[in-house]
Each structure stands twice: as structure tokens, then as C-alpha cells.
Design goal:
CATH superfamily of the largest domain: FAD/NAD(P)-binding domain
Bound molecules: flavin-adenine dinucleotide
Shape: globular
Order of helices and strands: HEHEHHHEEHEEEEEHEHEEEEEHEH
CATH topology of the largest domain: FAD/NAD(P)-binding domain
Structural class: alpha/beta
Number of helices: 10
Number of strands: 16
Largest sheet: 5 strands, parallel
Strand order of the largest sheet: 3-2-1-7-16
Radius of gyration: 23 Å
Helix content: 25-40%
Length: about 425
């Protein structure tokens, strides 16, 4: 009896990245009426950094439900230990999955969800009683310069965090000058082996950040510097570890990731003609050079506040300072966010409890932890981690399985539709 009612629920999934697609596979199999809205193309965010190699092997980026569907369709799949670029992964797994899904559900590409409300309710209304009232969600969708409203019983927000970047200024706010100079600042991952590389030849580039994206950029800029001796690199990081800017995991199980960190650290710490590491430094100020179109960046030491700040002249800046969730989608809903990560609070607290340095050792939480005060609204995938960077597709797939299982099994999710 419960199943019959589940079948009537309209689930809207927002975002056709790996997690949105996985949710569509599992929910359609469980009998939900599913609509998938994607603001751009399939797995657009991954395609935008598609030249970068994933650090997890193919087998860790797939799910049993996805693999089953593709195997039944006789798709040709790579070995599970294959290390693919984002573009290759999209081509062999995500796009074929989306093509198969189109036969089952409505997939709307170039359709951006702009805002969401809970029926006619305002944000501050029906506090604590929304579960009993259950008005349908109203989603404002923009498609080909046309706007319309879609209604839904359940929503999975799988919109990711890329490309909503953090600011490079100290303390997380834009440094003075940063917003005006945005044309000379790259916040995403430029393909430095492709045509974008031209921009970085024979100039000085400032790289800010000490994650794996910064490591990739530094290694690629070092290759450019070898080819064009006029190319110079300044690397500013908050980290002060004498071993280098990138923290390496003890006995890292992902050899590609460890090798990247090792190489980047070596470039920073060994005397290198083209690279200067500014250890424990933050960007205090950016201003345009009066004469030549360059930028004067002022760096300040975090550990020695009394010391003189350093001024460097650079042609371009690559800010690899992370991404944050776009909260505008759920602004009118009752979402309880963590004040430190901007992710949903229950999951944020769970992740804090895990306290793992390596994303590989973070376990998936139970469905209860993924709930919000707004009933039937789930933030999933990388957005559910907020600014915490430890998200892995593997964990996201497990979360989907747990939620679908609970939605199918629990009478509370099966209350009559309004
Ligand atoms: C360089 C890099 C390397 C990474 N390597 C790995 C790795 O090796 N292994 C791993 O597990 N993870 C890796 N990650 C993390 C990774 O991004 C994710 O695991 C994965 O992409 C998250 O999937 P997602 O579906 O949650 O979000 P995304 O892949 O970001 O997908 C979100 C989708 O939502 C769409 N969207 C956004 N807003 C709207 C809207 N308002 N309306 C409609 N659609 C919208 C976007 O266009 C996009 O298609 C990496 C991340 C980066 C940046």
C-alpha cells in the first residue's frame, strides 16, 4: 500500500552532476515521478574542470545502480582502477547514464532553478508545523529566457558548490581591489595544457591557496616556466609547514594525489629559478599598476604581523581558494545551516565528529542526519558539505541510497498529497 502512494510523489532533482544523476536512477527505480532540472549541460561543473584528472579511480566514482544500468545497456566501461580526467569520466559514465535516464524521466537541460518556496508560506510562517501542512514546493525555473513555476512534493538539491568561489582576500572577504580586478583573476581551474596556457607565458603569475587544485596549477605553471623563461610564479599560502604548502596524508592510499602533493611541495621548497613560495602569507591589497596593466599585490605575513608587508607585481592571479554553496535557492525555506561551513547543520555536526584529515576515512551518515527543519527538502552531494572540502562522490551515492530507502519505507513520507 505504501508503495502505491510513493509512486504518486513528484520528486524534483536540481542539478545533473554525478549525485543528481544517481538520485534520478535510484528514485525512478523506486517508483517516484522524477523531474531533473540542470541549468546548463549534463555534469557541467565537472566538464568545466574536465582537463583535470580525478584522484579517485573509476570504480570509486560509480555506483552499483549506475553500473547495472550501463551494463544492461552493453556500455563499454573502463577498468575500475582507471584514473580518468573529469571529461573522460563524463563521457564514459555520466553522459551515457543521462541518455538512459531520458527514457524514464523528464531531463530538462538549460533549465536553471532560480528560487524555491514552500507553497504560499513565507519563511517565518508555520515554524515547526510544516510537516503536518505539507504544501507543495514552488520552483521558479528559467529556461530559454522564459520563466515558469514547477511544483514538487520532494526536492533534492544537488547543485554542487563549483563555481561559487571564495574570495582571496584575508579573512575570506574580498581584498581591496579584488572585485575591480576580477578580469585578471582566475578562480576556477584553467587548462594550462590547453589554449588557456598562452595567457601565462612570459608573465608573472600569483597563485593563492594550498589545496590540490593549487598543487595542480603550480605543477603546470612550472612546466610553462620551463618552456618560456620569462614566466615567473609567486605562490602565497597561509600554511607554514616547512615540508611545503600541501599537507600530505600519511601512507596516502591514492598514489596520484600523493605524487601531486610531493611534486608541488618540492617546487615550493627547493630553490627554483621561476617559483617563489610566500609561506604563511595573506593577500592584503590588490591595485592596478599605474602604467602597464599589471597588478600590485600586497602580501602580509600571518605569523609576523610586525614585519613589513611585501609588494609584488604580477600579470595574472590564479586564486585556488575553494568554493562555497549558493544559498539563494533555499533562502525562503527553513534550512538550518552550520555557522562555520554553511552546510546543513546536522550533517556538519556529524562531519565535525568524524574529524578525519583524509576524505577517504569519512563515513556516510544515516538518512536522519540529512534532514532539515524543512520537511522533504534535502541538500545532497557536494553542496551538503558546504565549505568542507572532504566530499567524495562515493559518499554522496551512499547518502542517496539511504534517503531513498527511508522515503520508501517510512510512513511519515507517505502522508497524503495536498
Ligand atoms: C578539480 C576537482 C577535482 C575533484 N576530484 C574528485 C575526485 O577525484 N573524486 C571525488 O569523489 N570528488 C572529486 N571532486 C569533488 C567533486 O566535484 C564531486 O565529487 C562531484 O562533482 C560532486 O558532484 P555533485 O553532483 O554534488 O555536484 P556537481 O558535480 O558540482 O554538479 C552540480 C550540477 O548542478 C547544476 N546546477 C547548479 N545550480 C543549478 C541550478 N540553480 N539549477 C539547475 N542546475 C544547477 C550544475 O550545472 C552542475 O551540473 C573534485 C572537485 C574538483 C573541483
Amino acid at each position: 500500500m505504501w508503495e502505491v502512494e510513493v509512486h504518486q510523489k513528484h520528486l524534483v532533482i536540481i542539478g545533473a552532476g554525478p549525485i543528481g544523476l544517481e538520485a534520478a536512477v535510484q528514485a525512478s527505480e523506486a517508483g517516484f515521478k522524477v523531474s531533473l532540472f540542470e541549468k546548463s549541460g549534463i555534469a557541467q561543473n565537472i566538464q568545466d574542470w574536465g582537463h583535470v584528472k580525478l584522484f579517485t579511480p573509476f570504480g570509486m566514482n560509480t555506483s552499483s545502480a549506475g553500473m547495472q544500468l550501463l551494463t544492461e545497456a552493453a556500455a563499454t566501461l573502463p577498468a575500475s582502477d582507471a584514473l580518468l580526467s573529469g571529461r573522460e569520466f563524463t563521457g564514459v559514465y555520466l553522459k551515457p547514464l543521462a541518455d538512459l535516464l531520458r527514457k524514464r524521466i523528464a531531463v530538462h537541460e538549460n533549465s536553471q532553478v532560480v528560487a524555491i518556496s514552500r507553497g504560499d508560506l513565507l519563511k517565518g510562517e508555520a515554524i515547526g508545523s510544516r510537516a503536518s501542512q505539507h504544501p507543495k514546493f514552488r520552483l521558479l525555473v528559467e529556461q530559454n529566457q522564459r520563466e515558469f513555476v514547477v511544483s514538487a512534493d520532494l526536492i533534492f538539491d544537488c547543485t554542487g558548490v563549483y563555481p561559487h568561489h571564495n574570495w582571496l582576500g584575508t579573512g575570506g572577504i574580498p581584498s581591496p581591489g579584488e572585485r575591480c580586478l576580477s578580469k585578471q583573476i582566475e578562480y576556477s581551474l584553467p587548462d594550462l595544457k590547453g589554449p588557456a596556457a598562452k595567457k601565462y607565458h612570459e608573465i608573472t603569475t600569483l597563485v593563492v591557496g594550498s589545496g590540490y587544485s593549487a598543487a595542480t596549477t603550480i605543477c603546470e605553471l612550472a612546466t610553462i616556466a620551463k618552456q618560456s623563461p620569462g614566466s615567473k610564479i609567486h605562490w602565497a599560502t597561509r600554511s607554514t609547514d616547512s615540508q611545503g604548502p600541501i599537507s600530505r596524508m600519511d601512507e596516502d592510499q591514492l598514489s596520484g594525489r600523493d605524487e601531486l602533493a610531493r611534486q608541488a611541495n618540492q617546487l615550493a621548497t627547493e630553490n627554483h629559478d621561476a617559483i617563489q613560495w610566500h609561506r604563511g602569507c595573506v593577500v592584503e591589497h590588490l591595485q592596478p599598476h599605474a602604467g602597464n596593466g599589471n597588478i600590485i599585490a600586497t602580501l602580509r605575513s600571518l605569523n609576523e604581523p610586525e614585519s613589513e608587508s611585501t609588494q609584488i607585481e604580477v600579470g595574472q592571479i590564479i586564486a585556488q581558494v575553494g568554493y562555497r554553496p549558493d544559498r539563494s535557492l533555499h533562502e525562503e525555506l527553513q534550512i538550518h545551516e552550520c555557522y562555520a561551513t554553511s552546510g546543513p547543520i546536522k550533517l556538519a555536526a556529524f562531519l565535525l565528529g568524524e574529524q578525519a584529515a583524509d576524505c577517504l576515512s569519512v563515513s556516510a551518515c544515516e538518512a536522519e542526519t540529512l534532514k532539515n527543519p524543512e520537511p522533504d527538502y534535502y541538500i545532497l552531494g557536494s553542496k551538503s558539505y558546504g565549505r568542507n572540502t572532504q566530499f567524495l562522490m562515493q559518499t554522496g551515492y551512499e547518502h542517496i541510497t539511504k534517503i531513498i530507502a527511508e522515503l520508501v519505507a517510512l510512513p511519515s513520507s507517505l502522508s497524503p498529497l495536498v
